[in-house]
Amino acid sequence: MTLVPATFFAVGINELVRFVISKFFLRQFNGEITLISDGGDAIWSHVKKGNCRNILVYAVTPKDQLNVNILKKMFDQRVLAYKDSDGKRPYEKIKNIVVNMYGYPCWKKCPNFNLKNHFKVMKDRVYTEDEVKRWLSTFSEDMDDKKPQWELIVFPVYKGRIGII
Fold it and tell me: Which of these, 162, 158, 163, lies nearest to 133 by C-alpha position?
């Protein structure tokens, strides 16, 4: 029972410190760097030598169903331009770079965000499973903080099937 007041006190102090830090960042960086408020996003800011923060997700499309231009257009419409019922853009954060500032996880606005820097289409030829695995092994190194840390890679033809994303 005595832990409850101490917990509320610690949470209150933490929120106060975060408020002061966020105001400091606003003044110091003119809104270009802001605190990450969602713990699910903040976890990606933790960098440890020898560890990799990359996640690989792939999907294989049915034969004759992958059109790269349509895929790019869908991504632009359904992710980058998407607005929720409140008119907010929940995926706007993918235009930001995850950084640590003074020990706090932050979003840093990417001054020249361009989808082309994140959307890679491999040559239009058949890739074997071993080739895809070899290529994906290059992601064992952590992405730097020169651009938002994500990429969408498309293998147009995979093992006789159409498309792997």
Answer: 158
Q: How far is CA 36 from CA 33, 101, 164, in A?
A: 9, 11, 32
Residue 52 pLDDT > 70, yes or no?
no
Half-sphere exposure (Cβ direction) of 145: Cα atoms closer than 13 Å: 14
Contact call for residues 25 and 33 (beta carbons, < 8 A): yes
Integer Cα distance of 5 and 28 in angstroms? 34
Rounded Cα distance, 147 and 144, in Å: 7
72, pLDDT greater than 70: yes
Which residue ranges make up each domain of the chain? 48-94+113-164
Which percentage of the chain shows pLDDT scores above 70?
78
Q: Measure the CA–CA gap between 103 and 99, rounded to whole angstroms.
A: 9
| Phi, psi (deg, nearest 5) at residue 122 | -75, 165
